[in-house]
């Protein structure tokens, strides 16, 4: 038994063809479009549709809550579901919802379509992540998916905001619809099958010991990231940093996220203990949160901001591999959207309450408390067997 608390062997799985792996990476990028586009999304709803911050945030939250609900249900029933048809249907349904949203400008219609888009996306993305969790090497596949998401983010931020300037707000939803349609086509063309022997061995009972604790650890880290990162720009302005300097920091952050954490996680897969990484990740995240919220000098604040999200990406790659070994059925991996999007939905709300009710410093101190809970959860979930 290694210090990960589990066998280092990968879950039994058939060898996945490159086309199948590529389809899953495309599905990962499309399903996590909120991680890339959320600032542009909310900003467009305010600036181009005339909604207030509360309404704009509410629409994005409806999408996220729909995705979380669908992910929870899908993960629980992952091994009973027809995966390929549901992955196709999920992305196609999300594409239809967003293309319909491009024709609407009323809050009620957009709210219903955001919820439908979230439910469809959560269904498809859970199927994708559960299938990734049953690959021969889930850690490496998730790392490549992270690299793909980083590249997707760079392209999206370079293209879509410029198109909205020229063609208006509907471009936001047309772009989302096109992205989801591409993912649906990828599922049709190359969604990987599951060998019959693997399906027969899939469990439907309770999770193995430690799985839920690791899930809690990941969810808490995601919450912490969303709580602090949502207010990076606000903090920079409050410290008196120049707007161009803050923008440059955010651009650097995007490049760091593309170039550093996922490739590094892939390279260090066999060199670092997954248990040690997931125990150290929340502590590093908390230290950076303190730097972000307490630093008053730009030369200290900017490097901390640029690497803040990278810690979550790096740690989660190891956590994904860890969960896939703890639960070879893929059900825990299928819950990845719920882990990510719960934090995305709740973190900004908590951060806003802290910023308005207390101070910027309270944000960093709360991040330390949440990190301690995350470390405790990871420690419990990866405790070596006696």
TrEMBL record:
Cite the InterPro entries for this sequence.
Answer: MFS (IPR011701), MFS_trans_sf (IPR036259)
List the keywords (alphabetical): Membrane, Transmembrane, Transmembrane helix
On whether Membrane is a keyword of this UniProt record, the answer is yes
- Pfam annotation, one family: MFS_1
One example GO MF annotation: transmembrane transporter activity
In the UniProt record, does the keyword Chloroplast occur? no
As given in the record, the signal peptide range reads: none
Transmembrane intervals: 21-44, 56-74, 86-102, 108-129, 141-159, 171-191, 211-235, 241-265, 277-298, 304-323, 335-354, 360-379
Its protein name is: MFS transporter
Q: Which organism is it from?
A: Mangrovicoccus algicola
